[in-house]
Write a structure and sequence with these properties.
Strand content: 25-35%
Shape: globular
Largest sheet: 5 strands, antiparallel
Strand order of the largest sheet: 1-2-3-4-5
Oligomer: single chain
Number of helices: 4
Distance between the termini: 14 Å
């Protein structure tokens, strides 16, 4: 992944409430699977009120993120939480993203950009 910082992630958030909610999501115990593939795409499956599949690719100059949750906020708290886990030093293994994760997340694809 590109060099993200907590300040960069805060800049991607649609509002301050999203950051506060993302902090509760950035708990590795709430994720059934996490990984980063060979291309640097961070992905995960979050267990909340439902299971949400998501990924974030920080290929400069754009961060492409997707999540299968129903939130209208983009990026959602799940994507922000996943990015917070990565910059917070949580160990994330290198492994291929499951096809089901990509397919579920691709249905809700959106893009956010940062410098």
């Amino acid at each position: 992944m590109s060099k993200l910082t907590l300040d960069t992630i805060k800049g991607l958030a649609p509002d301050s409430k999203s950051i506060a909610n993302a902090k509760t999501v950035a708990d590795p115990r709430k994720w059934s699977s996490l990984g980063v593939d060979a291309d640097g795409v961070l992905w995960g499956e979050f267990n909340g009120s439902d299971r949400y599949s998501l990924y974030a690719s920080s290929k400069s100059p754009a961060t492409m993120t997707a999540c299968s949750c129903p939130s209208r906020k983009r990026p959602c708290k799940h994507v922000l939480g996943l990015l917070m886990l990565a910059v917070g030093g949580h160990p994330i293994a290198t492994k291929e993203m499951p096809v089901a994760v990509r397919e579920a997340a691709d249905e809700a694809y959106y893009e956010s950009t940062f410098e």
